[in-house]
Amino acid sequence: MSICTLEELTELLRETLGDDEEINLDGDIRDVPLSELGFDSLAKLELAASLRHRYGVIVPDGVIETLLTPADTLAWVNGEIAVVA
Amino acid sequence: MTATITGLGVVAPNGVGVDTYWPAVLDGVSGLARLADGHAARIGGTVDGGTEGIPGRLAVQTDRWTQLALRGCALALTDADLDPDGLDAFDLGVVTASSSGGNEFGQREIQKLWAQGPDYVGTYQSIAWFYAATTGQISIRHQAKGPCGVLVSEQAAGLDALGQARRVLRDDAQVVISGGTEAPLSPYALVCQSTNEGFSVSADPDVAYLPFDDRADGYVPGEGGALIVIERSEHARRRGVRRYADLAGYAASFDPPPGSSRPPTLTAAIRGALADAGLTPGDIDVVFADGAGTRDADRAEAEALAAVFGPGGVPVTVPKALTGRLYAGGSSLDVATAALAIHHGVIPPTGGSTGAGPSCPIDLVQGAPRPGPVRSALVVARGAGGFNAAAVLTTPAE
Asked: Global pTM?
């Protein structure tokens, strides 16, 4: 299973939040807090579900809280993919 | 404390926005049309452009019913010339009516549940389906931290929500966003309604819903409703805004179970609302009737009105014949229409019906609007299961 890129993750973020001109996911958002991008607790659960369906990666509830930025999320997802591989 | 209506946000099958809806009602323009084949109903009232302007981030987490309400809310706030940001957040409450809730959103998630498994049911199902979703989303969007709530009594809920809004204004709110909408035209929702008493399966939009008519043979469903800004009169006066009508009286009652020897209690709700308004039947210039559209229900309502007003004792109108029954949006839209009738001094006609049948001793306004001062209007609503509610609107007090 190939790794999740920032580009792919950004696409997932966009799908989760909905198409909205007020949401800016352009540029290098790696270290922008997810909360600033518009993610409340429900949106993060929805994102975790999408990661599960798309990459087969489980994001336990305890871990979801610790994923504060897209960079954190990429690190977790790609770490889990590497373990399985 | 007098509660007065200062903003109307209409989202109806025959018009979105007061400026489109009101002329359509006066001209008898119907919003009823054939639904797509395969549904459990042939005719319904759909709203075109009812969800325009909803931000994408709200669209993914809301059902169409809430989106119609968000559109209505935006229209109502503009109509009331009210910017919620200029209010103390705790002075603004939200009390809406709800009925079937997020049925279309729920149907999609149920399909995922059965086709793909529980893990594919989306997180937003948790907030999109339930009765309070519209109140919640409006409250979040406009930072309304005052008393909030939702009333669930089918077609009567719009009046019950206004009654609760008035209680909340008497307490400590200054402004309440009230009213309600419904989106009952998903396949799942239509199947649920198909066993309702009086649900029409006619395929002809011109005769499918004829309240009080001799040919009455059921009602058709519709989507949409109205969001209503209601505030304390003194608050409206300080803002210097136009007031449509005061909510002078409100009452509710509940019917005994089917088969009971006790009679229905609609008359009690009507008399209660009149008493609450400090008015007599002779003071009422028009009744916006529930108009369920079946011979039995129409006769029962006509008899209740005759008991209070005398046979043919007051003009009666049912503009919802042009939109269908909107359930949680229905009596809110009736209130909006009654407020417009008072404001413009004209009674809109009952679309479609050619006149009240012999078993309904009422003066039904049909064919053309009836101009003349409308100083007070009675709005009547009955919700399936036994809910009755009545509200009295009057010209705003000086």
From this structure: 0.95
